[in-house]
Amino acid sequence: MKALQLIKYGEIKDSLAFNEVSKPTVQANDVLIEVKAAAINPIDKSIILGNLQSIIPISFPSTSAYDVSGVVVEKGDEVRHFEIGDLVYSRVPQEQMGTIAEYIAVNSIAVSKKPGNISFEEAASIPLAGLTALQSLEHVGIKENDKVLIHAGSGGVGSFAIQYAKSKGAYVYTTTSTDNVEWVKALGADRVIDYKKENYKTIVKDADIVFDTLGKNYTLEALQLVKQGGKVVSVVGPLDEESAKMWGMTDYKLPCLLYTSPSPRDRG
User: Fold this and answer.
1) H helices then E strands: how many in the chain?
2) What Rg, from alpha-carbon coordinates, does the chain have?
3) How far apart are CA 257 and CA 264, in angstroms?
4) What is the per-residue pLDDT for 11?
5) 101 vs 12, 18, 128, CA distance in Å?
6) 2-114: which CATH topology?
7) Which of 127, 130, 81 is nearest to 107 (CA)?
8) Is the dihedral of CA 68, 69, 73, 76 positive or negative?
9) What's the rounded Cα separation, in Å, for the pair 144 and 165?
10) CATH 3.90.180.10 segments of the chain
11) Residues carrying CATH 3.40.50.720, the chain
12) Share of the chain above pLDDT 90, in %
């Protein structure tokens, strides 16, 4: 079968190649998925560039990407919740990375049935973006009536975060560009801030939560926008120590950030 593989670290145009590889074999708890759609995310680009070698070591050649949707064509002896022909989607485990291929074997615990009202392409776009939004907002304990600022509301993570925050009963501010204002409103955001025309820092005050999807100065500015006791959650920037432990980096220490500290009232 054909697969898109990383053959060396470096620029995308030089580091990827379509190769003929063996069709995967299923283990007892696996399902074999005939791939209909696969999605790529920023982490996939970082892996290709070699930025995550210390966290995600891989051997060359290695098939790329983690998000997938398709059809179950084979299953292991211990799989009970899926049948041949089921339409499914998944964020595959690290050790089974490689969704840009004709087939992939995935531990069934990481697989869900595809909703009937979305396409294979839409289903493949959900796993990482959806999990990032859900886990980030749950990590900071989002609850009803929280005032939440979500940056980049028209992005993959931001668009999921808006809908999840609204489902929890929060009041949602979000930033986006002029072209996406109406679409982001349709997602449910209460106050859409067109960053080309407005300064979000003059609009958002005393937020309970700021969800930073942009990094750099946005992360530091978030500390000035949350109320005392508020929380900032970011998916950009240095790895936090809790996540580092998940990746097996037991001696990792969060780098010091240099910035002008906000007043005590503005600290989260």
Assistant:
1) 9, 13
2) 21
3) 17
4) 94
5) 17, 9, 18
6) Quinone Oxidoreductase; Chain A, domain 1 (3.90.180)
7) 81
8) positive
9) 9
10) 2-114
11) 128-266
12) 79
The confidence score (pLDDT) of residue 257 equals 45
The answer to whether the beta carbons of residues 200 and 138 sit under 8 Å apart is no
Q: What three-state secondary structure class fits 157?
A: helix
Note the pTM of the prediction, 2 decimals: 0.82
- Domain covering 128-266 assigned CATH 3.40.50.720 in the classification: yes
119 contact partners, CB below 8 Å, separation of at least 6: 37
Query: What does the block give as tokens for 199?
Result: 């300064």
Residue showing tokens 């508020």: 230
Instruction: Tell me the pairing of strands 30-39 and 62-63.
Output: unpaired
Reduce the secondary structure of 36-102 to three states and give it as a string: EEEECCHHHHHHHHCCCCCCCCCCCCEECCCEEEEEEEEECCCCCCCCCCCEEEEECCHHHCCCCEC
